[in-house]
Structures are given as structure tokens and as C-alpha cells.
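Uroporphyrinogen decarboxylase (URO-D) domain-containing protein
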Amino acid sequence: MENNLHKMTEERNQLYMDVRAGKIPKRVPINLNMDGAAALEYAGYDLKTQQYDIKYLIDAMEKAAQDFESDNLGVTAVRFAHFYKILGAKHFVMGTDGFLQHPEIAAMEPKEYDVLIAEPYQFLWDSVIPRLYTELDKPWPLSSAALAKGFHTFYSTMGQIGASKNELCLKYGKSNLGGAFAQTDAPFDFIADLLRSFTGMMMDIRRVPDKVEAACEAILPLMIKTGAKGTPKKAGGCMIPLHMAPYMKEKDFERFYWPTFKKLVEELVKTNTNVSIFLEHDFTRFLDYIRELPAGCQLMAEFGDPKVFKEKLGDKFILTGFYPLAMLKTGTLNEIQDKAKEIIDILAPGGRYIFSLDKSILRVSDVEIDKYQALLRFVKEYAVY
């Protein structure tokens, strides 16, 4: 039995390797899209209390591996309640229902752009981080104790998750391809998300445009370092979720967003990092720009016409996403299957396609679970080359 499961892992790894190599696999690989919070709820756990102990998340990952017919493990865990609690985080806070949310905050004043540009690492360490984490803003030795706890908690948590993921992949025959995983940001998004806020950044590109440009260039090396997880065999992966671009005018995107984002992707590819980009909202306006990125990147689209994406990008990039999560709440089984056929028939020909939803399931109530399970089973039978 164990040998059969290991063989299944190897077969599923081969599906992804073929897609990455531009070869047509035996069938379309199927990704599960589930946030750690949704997995915990699906496993019957209370976010307000049991989210603080990593053993419950690992148990929820195993429950998902058992119950969902996917080729990957598919439970994404990047936000940890116990970590944010220890450090007194302001930028990720727990709501009354236990879900961790990212409020609109600004940890930098417009007058501080010059300091950020001159010494980005020192400014982030000395000024921004204590503003985001209240425990690090306390007098020594309390701040040092909190920092030590924070580092220990982070690496202990990630170590447990990494080891458990590989064990679960082998136990249930899931793909364990990928190696080291990282997440980084487009420099413009990093400044908007954590330093200036959405509204603050949109004012800054009008009031201090030159400083915004310079700040993106100053932050770029840190974003490259954060995301570079490649190996000589190109096993490491990096996710880049793109936030602000769809809400910008094209001339602003071209000036402020695109130059440093393009450099970021190019430099990550040079380190043998597999780059996966989440095109949040609708990137149709920017497909000609995306075309300029290095070949082989994976593009997950939330909205847009699959035919247009396939025509403009399908020969150069791996495409995934597009399947509307909302259908798993409102559609009938026939409608759900018909939509899957439609998307697969457009995107699967020629390879370079991985089936997935257009976004992750954040809460278990976002979908009807039995419909999602039925969808995954249907795709496995239908999407065969």
C-alpha cells in the first residue's frame, strides 16, 4: 500500500513537471484551493480558540488530503494567530468570528519617504516594524524578549508545517513537488499594503510621484531577497499576489507599478525560482505587459476571458485559475460541470494548464463542500489528454 501511494506521488509530480517543461501531461493537474481557516472550519475546529495551536491546522490539512481529489495538498497557511498575538500585530487582527483580517493601516508618514529611500532596511527595522508590532515597541528587554519569541515561533511553526506537508503528501499520494516556498510582493504593493495604505498610496502618486518611484526601486532588493527560493534543479517556488494594479490607470501602472515588478520577476527567475503570480481582480488591460515577463511563470487569473488569456499568453506561461468559486455556492451540479468543461476545453489544449478555482476558499461557508468535491472528481475524469 505504501509503495502504491509513493508511486501515486511520483505520478502526480510528473504531471506538474510536464506542465512546467511545456510538455503535455497525461491529464490536467488539479489544484485544491483552500485557506487554512477554511480547512480548520471544515475539520470542525473553532477559529477563535483552536487556531492558536498548529496541531489543529496539521490535522485539518490531513482531513483535506483525505476528502478532496486533488493532486496537490492544497491548504495554504501563511497567517498564524499565535505569531501575531505574541508580537501584538496591528496589520493582521482577529475578527469577532476568529478570521484574521488585514485592516487599512499606514505605518509610514509621507514625510518619511526620504528616509525609506536612503536606508530602506534600517528604516523598516527601526521604525516600521515597531509600529506594526506593539510588543516590539516596548522598552528593552521586553522588546528583545518578544523578538526572540517571535523568531522561535515563526521558525518552529514553519518547520512543523513543512515536515507535516511532506509526510501527508506521501501518506495520501499527493504531489510533494515544490521544495522551499516563499511569498513576496511587487514593490508598489509592499509600500501600499504595509507602509502607506491603499488610499495613502493613491494620494502619493499624485503628490510625490518621484519619491514613490524611488521608494519602489529602494524596496526592490528586499523583495527579491524575500522571494528567492530557487535551487539548481529549480524546485523552489515563490508566490506573488498582485493587489493594486487593477485599480490604477494604465499610465500610472506603467510608471509606478510595472518597472520594479518586472525586475522582481526577472531576478527571481535568474535564481531558478519558480514564480507563481496571482493576478487579482481583472488584469485584461495589462496582458501585453505580462507578456514581457520571463517564459514559464505560472499565472493564476481571478477574472477575465480565458480565450483572451489563452490567445495572448498560453504559449509562454502556465495558466490556472478562472473557475468561479461562486458557482460552488449557487450553481447546480450540471452547471458546475458545464463550466468546468468550458474552461478546460479552452485552456487545456497544448498543455501549460493547471485546473484551479479563481481564488482560494477563505471560509468553509464560501462554497457547498459536496459540490466542490464533485467538481474535483469530474475534472479528474474529464481533463485527460
